[in-house]
Every structure is written in structure tokens, then in C-alpha cells.
Amino acid sequence: MIVVLLGPPGAGKGTQGERIAAALGVPKIATGDVLRAAVKAGTPLGLEAKGYMDRGDLVPDVVILGIMKQALAAPEQARGVVLDGVVRTVPQAEGLAAVLAELHRPLDVVLLFTIAEDALVARLSGRTVCDGCQTPFTGRAPSETHAECAQSPKGTLVRRKDDEPDAVRNRMRVYEAQTAPVVAWYRAHGANVAAIDALGALDVVQARALKAVGKG
Ligand code: ADP
Question: 193-202 burial string, b = 16+ CB within 10 Å, else e?
Fold first, then answer.
């Protein structure tokens, strides 16, 4: 099963994506996580991506298409995959469609997380993430230790640079200008687009999402 997650920054795609992937028994790919890992490791990809990411701008399509192709060709994706933030522009949606056609795999569902902008700004400005496993938290301060981190023995909570107010506002504008048209593109191309109300407790939103992927 191939699931594409769409929705503005802060809508909860990362958190719900983990849960949906676990319920379906498939991996999740998040381009944001791939890029942040590259920045941390100082690879050429990371060096190219860093400036765009810190400002809250999109990384060029050609970079994302490369990540997408490589990720989808991996054998562990044979049973399916949840794609989080992988498609943010119409050229990326076209690119993904071409890669899937080559692999003879259908896109099963596009989950569109919807939520009012005020709620997004509040969520992002109060958010910290573990620098080891990327788990997001609200109400926990930067520099606290994440003792339960599965990736590193001393995960530390940090504020993402792109969660600073100016970058958040820019990400919202970028979403409206570049990613909102992707929803119309999918509808025009006959995709199964399911809107998920992303406001509510984690388990409540999860139940809505699982219902939409046939696991509710
Ligand atoms: P969010 O969805 O909350 O904005 P992510 O962690 O998914 O955050 O992504 C962080 C940043 O990584 C984006 O602001 C952007 O700079 C870059 N990025 C991730 N995915 C893409 C993509 N598909 N196209 C272009 N840039 C991307």
C-alpha cells in the first residue's frame, strides 16, 4: 500500500505517519528527516539543503526527486510505504507518478491533514524535537534529555531552526503557494484524496487516519 501524506507544517503528518506505517506494517519515508540527517552528517546533499531548510524554503525539486527514486527502489518498500512530506510541489507529484508507473505500483491514498493556521503556529512555536530520533514534543524545554531515545543514548531536545516564528510564517506561505496546488493536482488526476481533520487528541486523529487507509 502506498500512502502519501499532505498537509501544512505542524499538522501532525510525522507523528501520525509513524502510527499509520506501524499499523500497515510498512516503513515511512520523510524527506525532512532524510535532509536533516544529511545536514547533521555534513554530506554534499546536506550542505546544499541547509540554507533552504533554515529559511523554511523548499529544497529544489531535482534534489527531492533523487531522494524519492532511491527510497522507492529499496527492497524494504516492496509491501508499501508511507510518504511524509515527500510531495510538496506539482513537479514532485508528477515525478512520483512517473517513478510509480515505472515500478508498476499504484498510489493507493492521499491523506490530506487539515487544520486552522492559528493552531499550527501555536503547535510549532511550542515544539521541541529529539536530535537523535526526531520525535516531536510539546511542553518540553530545549536542552532537556530524551532518555527514551531509541537512536542515541543521550538524545537532547532541540528547537528546529525552521520552527522560529519568521521561518514558520514563511513555511505557511510556501505551503499555500506550492503545496496546496498539489491537492488540486491529485484530485484532477483521479487520486483517492481523503481529508483528515487534524485537530484533536493524537489517538482521535489516528483513528480517523486509520479508517481512511482501511485499518480502522
Ligand atoms: P514540515 O513539514 O514541518 O515543514 P519537514 O521536517 O517535513 O517539516 O521538512 C523540513 C524542511 O525540509 C522543509 O521546510 C523543506 O525545506 C525541506 N523539505 C522536506 N521535504 C521536501 C520536499 N518534498 N520538497 C522540498 N523541500 C522539502
Answer: beebebeeee
Domain spans of the chain, in order of start: 2-26+79-212
The architecture in CATH of the region 2-26+79-212 reads: 3-Layer(aba) Sandwich (3.40)
pLDDT at 151: 84
Instruction: Give the β-pairing of 145-146 and 155-158.
Output: antiparallel
pTM: 0.89
Query: What is the best residue among 6, 29, 35 to mutate for testing ligand 1's pocket, by most ligand atoms within 8 Å of CB?
Result: 35
Mutate to test the pocket of ligand 1, among 28, 88, 90, 92 (most ligand atoms within 8 A of CB): 88
Q: Is 127 a residue of the active site?
A: yes
pLDDT beneath 70, residues of the chain:
none
